[in-house]
Design brief:
- It is a single chain.
- By secondary structure, the chain is of the alpha+beta class.
- Helix content is 34%, strand content 36%.
- The protein has three helices and nine strands, in the order αβββββαββββα.
């Protein structure tokens, strides 16, 4: 007569090791995923400081955006990695006399926009509270950006723009944000972070 002896201890130990290995693998995968998200967020939110002593402006703009100080503005930065219209943030200063009102500046901007932007269409104007509790005025508009590349004459991009006007007394600060209309709302978070660092 043959006697069968079951060895359960070894099987249970192997099963426990398997489960432990499974949980460790899962934990490592979750850690790597969260670490990747953190790195991605840090990259997306990375900034570069900029200061213009003459204009009295300092700010942090998105890292790796192209800085331009050669135009009729204090500075402009653009996301050159974006296909199509390059998301743009621009800061300008406009002189204002004692007898001028914010409405005069808005009217002047409308005239300038209509002359320089194709299919310019003003949308709305409303009060705007900046992160530093300064009161401004926001003006929204749309237009069509045509690709300057002669080989892409048919390429055009619907753009939504936003100008925030802040009257400092002797001049008006104009903070401009423009993005392709289809991504404008998504890109607003970047603009908000920019405004949170703006000092003037």
């Amino acid at each position: 007569m043959t006697e069968v002896i079951e060895i359960r201890g070894t099987e249970e130990e192997t099963f426990r090791q398997y489960r432990l290995g499974h949980f460790l693998t899962l934990a490592v995968a979750v850690f790597v995923f969260l670490y990747g998200l953190n790195i991605r967020a840090s990259t997306i939110n990375a900034t570069t400081p900029y200061t213009d002593i003459q204009a009295g402006i300092s700010v942090k703009y998105p890292k790796n955006w192209l800085l331009d100080v050669t135009g009729d503005y204090v500075f402009r930065v653009r996301d050159m990695t974006r296909i199509g219209f390059k998301t743009t943030i621009q800061v300008s200063l406009r002189p204002i006399s004692a007898d001028m009102t914010d409405q005069n500046v808005l009217t002047s901007l409308h005239i300038t926009r209509a002359e320089t932007l194709f299919a310019y269409d003003p949308q709305s104007t409303e009060p705007y509270l900046l992160p530093n509790d300064l009161q401004g005025t926001a003006m929204y508009y749309t237009y069509i950006e045509r690709d300057p590349n002669p080989f892409l004459e048919s390429a055009s991009y619907p753009v939504t723009g936003m100008d925030i006007l802040v009257n400092t007394g002797s001049q008006v600060l104009v903070i401009t944000f423009r993005a392709e209309s289809s991504t404008f709302n998504d890109e607003l978070a970047t603009f908000t972070r920019f405004l949170e660092t703006l000092e003037f």
